[in-house]
Amino acid sequence: MKDVKDQFEITADPANASAARARLRAAATEAGFVGTALDDFEVALGEALSNAILHGSPTPASLISVCISFVLRTREFSVEVTDRGTGFDPAAVRRNSGSDDVNGRGLKMMAILVDKAMLFHDGVGMTVRLVKRVPERA
User: Fold this and answer.
1) CB burial readout 26-43, b (16+ within 10 A) else e
2) Count of alpha carbons within 13 Å of 111, Cβ hemisphere only?
3) Which pLDDT band holds residue 34 (cuts at 50, 70, 90)?
4) Spatial separation of the C-alpha atoms in residues 16 and 121, rounded to whole Å
5) What pLDDT, on a 0 to 100 scale, did the predictor assign at position 105?
6) Structural domains in the chain?
7) What is the CA radius of gyration of the chain?
8) Which of 72-76, 111-115, 125-129 has the lowest mean pLDDT?
9) Alpha-carbon separation of residue 84 from 1, 2, 32, 79, 121 (angstroms)
10) How far apart are the first and last CA of the chain?
11) What is the pLDDT of residues 52-78, one digit of tens each?
12) CA atoms within 13 A on the CB side of 57
């Protein structure tokens, strides 16, 4: 096993999400993910991509950056999805979302499926960072 790094851009066309998920799945498999842990990470990435495409991209031609990395020393696998949208305040979404609200459910789901889900806005776009430790093999 070795460190893995992959970085690429897709346009905000929903058809591009499946190719990005396939690249994540290949990199995560190479890093040692299998079974449910692999599926969970792929679902969380799918949600991050969907949010970037539907809410964070002004046009279908807008670019979305995807950065995948795995550091062998820490066994942490991370994915960052960055859109070019205006962003939002994640704390406001958490404060204002009730159990029946549709808005914010994807953020909650991502947080459940990975070890860490972080959101950043740098003035250029919104970044979702998903981190999950690779399970030890039995």
Assistant:
1) ebbeebbbeeebbebbbe
2) 9
3) very high
4) 23
5) 78
6) 4-133 (3.30.565.10)
7) 15
8) 72-76
9) 34, 31, 31, 17, 10
10) 16
11) 998 889 888 999 999 999 888 888 999
12) 23
Give counts: helices (H), strands (E), the chain. Answer: 4, 5
d(CA 61, CA 55) in angstroms, rounded, equals 14
pLDDT of 100 > 70? The answer is no
Distance, in Å, from the CA atom of 118 to the CA atom of 111, rounded to the nearest integer, reads 8
Alpha-carbon distance of 79 to 88, in angstroms, equals 20
pLDDT value at residue 134: 87
The residue type found at 130 is L
Q: How confident is the model at residue 2 (pLDDT cuts 50, 70, 90)?
A: low
> How far is 62 from 68, CA to CA, in rounded Å?
20
Return the closest-CA partner of residue 115 out of 66, 74, 87: 74
* Contact indicator for 83, 137 with CB cutoff of 8 Å: no
Q: What is the pLDDT of residue 70?
A: 84
